[in-house]
Specification:
This protein is mainly alpha-helical. It is built from 39 helices and ten strands.
């Protein structure tokens, strides 16, 4: 096994002088990479001149120098010994299939290394052939992992390790027959004794392997057919195959799918190559580089090498270069290492239909795709599109999503696909595919959203292409999974001036948005809808969209002042259109704005006006929702008995109309408001029962924000009931899902008070710090007042605006 004594002393003497690897490199002229490899035991045979330079640079005493040089010599002897052929009879021919040296940095693969070690020990223990396949996308480091495994695990196999590059990405991969010929030479069979007949060669190979315990590393396999003849029965041996293909046809006992590196691992690899002190000095820029490299080890190695060879560069400079998508693949080049070249090898092996699908996926706005969307963008029938997607996934040019029937693509691969799209297809074909995809996404999204309309669920929309939406459940699933895509399609339509499509989608999204999606999403959707309505000159539609925009501002984004501006535009448009219903909705939303900007009493007055306007407009749904909202405003004003009374009216209405579309969700919202007020009047048990019912209904429709709301309110009720431990559990479980603007602030304040009660001052402080940070997101007098209180409790200067 390798000795690291020399490397350990090198590190010790360097740190004794408080020098970084870079400083020692500058002092001695030895490269940073060489010093790093020696310290980590990767380089076991440093040259005499290198050792002499290090002795001088490290300022060693004569005795230290003698010992240091001796350790270097011992390392060279060890390296020579470990480079012996794998079998005594193969002294001359063993180099044919010798393991290559470890030249590529391997970082972030500890779990995969452990898995391969376990597989090798299985081979040793069970006495039968173990087949392990390592597969993954181009640049993931499959060969590096396999070579590392060869060096680490050879000692577990009595006859050592053979390595063979099957050249799977070459125009003519190594045939199985030629592979057998080379492996026979690796076993030490004299060239003159290798049978001329192919079957005889294979028989000799199998007989030799059967008598040996060998680790056989077959790198860069093209197909299953190339591998199968090499899988002779061999007790106690292991065959480790690497391939860009999944080689799904092989009956492999073990599989390792190499994933891309996560953020921390990617930064770590960048630091190993470019210098850890350099990465530490520009950590945020390094994280940008890691992100722009997409977690692809090859890209990170290239980026690190570019930095290591350009010491005058800042990491931020490289990050800025990589930020330009059109240049990114060109920047990721270092000598003969190129990310683009690695991708091209796989691309040129694709069948024409799969290659076309690969290019067209670049047009999809989001990071994953469904079979239906791929069929639309490629212009293929769904069954052919699915076959092409499967081929791309088997070639590791796409990934399999955790959701069956969906496929993922990482950023660098998408950039490469976009390049191929521009090179291999006409601008007219690309434009037609883009428009076809955009129109399909908007049509399906509009149809899906209309399933949530509580008044007029008109879903009679003809879809030109696959129709994945058939009912409310499929609509909910599709809208969630395809959000990045239909949102991207909306942006494209808005930029192209397709105002009718934009307005139709924004209008359809009204009721769907009530309990789903983020404030940022709905600001964009309803903002685009308002602009399209104005461009089309549709005044009533303008009133509707400005109403929805006002709601998103105050309810989800904590921006009541911006909400007030949108409200005023909504009222003006509603009056101009003579539309009483839009005007009623405007005052409904105004109540929430007033609660945040003025007083609870003013919010109550405005909510009563909304109830009156809905009644005049003869719109029961709005009337009873406004009654429930009035109850919520009365609750804030401390008028609990009346709050309960008006919410009881709303409850009765929705319980009596349980066949209406989406009624369950509206009833759920009313129940949460009623429960809150009941608890305030002392009816804790009744309140908890209503919250349990609301939770059941929200769970039935998989409305996570509704479930969060229930847990938040249950936490408050449990505090009133003197059950702090249960209250804390409910508040904590609600915290991460909370969507409503000020709810997170109140949750954190309540959690801090509960921590105070149990004497956990550290936890209380943590909650208050988080609450104070959360307050900065919202602009209202109440939140500013809370911020001032929190600052005082934390011993901070109270903000002047508080």
């Amino acid at each position: 096994m390798p000795t690291t004594a020399f490397g350990d002393f090198l590190r010790f003497y360097r740190l004794r002088l408080s020098m970084t690897q870079e400083e020692l490199a500058e002092r001695t002229g030895v490269s940073v990479r060489a010093i790093s490899d020696m310290e980590r035991g990767r380089a076991l045979s440093p040259q005499r001149r290198t050792v002499e330079l290090l002795v001088t640079g490290l300022e060693l005493t004569p005795d230290e120098a003698t010992e240091f040089i001796g350790l270097a010599r011992a390392g060279r002897k060890t390296a020579v010994a470990e480079d012996k052929p794998v079998h005594p009879e193969t002294a001359k021919a063993g180099a044919v299939c010798a393991l290559p040296p470890v030249l590529t940095e391997l970082t972030g693969r500890e779990r995969d290394q452990a898995a391969l070690t376990a597989f090798a020990k299985d081979a040793e223990a069970c006495g039968r052939l173990q087949l392990a396949v390592v597969h993954g996308p181009p640049g993931a480091g499959k060969t590096a992992l396999a070579v590392d495994a060869g060096h680490r695990l050879t000692s577990l196999f009595g006859n050592g390790c053979l390595f063979l590059d099957l050249r799977g990405m070459d125009p003519e991969p190594l045939s199985a027959d030629r592979a057998v010929h080379r492996l026979l030479r690796g076993f030490g069979v004299d060239e003159r004794k290798i049978p001329a007949d192919q079957d005889d060669r294979l028989a000799l190979y199998r007989s030799l392997l059967q008598d040996r315990s060998v680790l056989l590393v077959l790198d860069n396999a093209a197909s299953e057919a190339q591998i199968r003849p090499l899988l002779a029965t061999s007790p106690g041996s292991m065959v480790l195959v690497t391939s860009r293909s999944t080689l799904a046809g092989l009956d492999a006992r073990h599989r390792v799918a190499l994933e891309l590196l996560d953020g921390d691992r990617a930064v770590e690899l960048l630091g190993v190559v470019a210098g850890t002190h350099r990465v530490a000095a520009e950590h945020e820029a390094a994280r940008r580089v890691a992100t722009l490299c997409g977690g692809v080890p090859l890209a990170l190695l290239i980026a690190g090498n570019r930095l290591a060879s350009r010491t005058q560069w800042t990491i931020a400079h490289l990050a800025d270069q990589l930020a330009d998508e059109r240049r990114r693949l060109s920047v990721l080049t270092a000598g003969d290492l190129q990310v683009r070249a690695a991708f091209e090898l796989s691309y040129h092996h694709l069948e024409p239909a799969a290659a076309r699908m690969f290019r067209r996926i670049a047009l999809v706005p989001g990071p994953d795709t469904s079979v239906e969307l791929a069929a639309v963008v490629s212009g293929q029938p769904a069954h052919l599109a699915e076959a092409a997607l499967e081929e791309l996934a088997d070639a590791s040019l796409l990934g399999f999503s955790d959701i069956p029937g969906r496929f993922t693509s990482h950023d660098l691969m998408r950039l490469f696909a976009r390049e191929r799209l521009e090179l291999d297809e006409t601008a007219e074909d690309v434009r037609a595919a883009n428009e076809r995809m955009r129109d399909w996404l908007l049509a399906v999204a509009t149809k899906a959203a209309r399933y949530f309309d509580h008044d007029r669920p008109d879903t009679a929309i003809t879809i030109d292409g696959p129709d994945p939406v058939h009912d409310r459940d499929t609509a909910k699933t599709w809208l969630a999974l395809e959000q990045a895509h239909w949102r991207g399609a909306l942006r494209c339509a808005a930029a192209a001036g397709e105002h009718r499509q934009v307005l139709d989608l924004a209008t359809a999204m009204h009721w769907y948005s009530d309990l789903r999606g983020t404030g940022e999403l709905w600001l964009e959707i309803f903002g685009a809808g308002a602009r399209s309505a104005q461009a089309l000159g549709e005044v009533k539609a303008s009133a509707e969209q400005f109403n929805y925009l006002a709601w998103a501002h105050y309810a989800l984004c904590g921006q009541p002042r911006e909400a007030l501006v949108a409200h005023q535009q909504a009222v003006a448009a509603a009056v101009a259109a003579g539309d009483l219903l839009s005007e009623a909705w405007a005052w409904y939303y105004r109540a929430g704005i007033e609660r945040r900007l003025t007083t609870a009493q003013e919010a109550v007055r405005v909510a009563r006006r909304a109830v009156e306007l809905f009644e005049r407009a003869d719109y029961p749904n709005g009337q009873y929702l406004a009654l429930s909202l009035l109850g919520a405003m009365l609750h804030v004003a401390g008028e609990y008995p009346e709050a309960v009374a008006v919410n009881r009216l709303a409850e009765a209405h929705y319980r009596g109309s349980d066949t209406a579309p989406g009624n369950d969700e509206l009833l759920s919202m009313v129940l949460t408001r009623l429960a809150d007020s009941l608890a305030a009047t002392g009816e804790v048990i009744a309140a908890l029962d209503l919250l349990d019912e609301a939770e059941t209904l929200f769970r039935k429709h998989q409305v996570s924000t509704g479930l969060s709301r229930v847990r938040f309110l249950r936490g408050r009720v449990l505090i009133r009931a003197g059950r702090p431990a249960e209250a804390r559990e409910q508040l904590l479980s609600s915290l991460d899902e909370a969507r409503w603007s000020e709810a997170r602030v109140e949750m954190l304040v309540l959690l801090a008070e509960l921590a105070d009660d149990r004497g956990d001052t550290a936890q209380a402080r943590e909650h208050r710090v988080r609450a104070l940070a959360e307050c900065a997101r919202y602009d209202s007098p109440a939140v500013r007042g809370t911020a001032g209180t929190l600052a005082a409790q934390l011993g901070l200067a109270v903000p002047e605006s508080a």
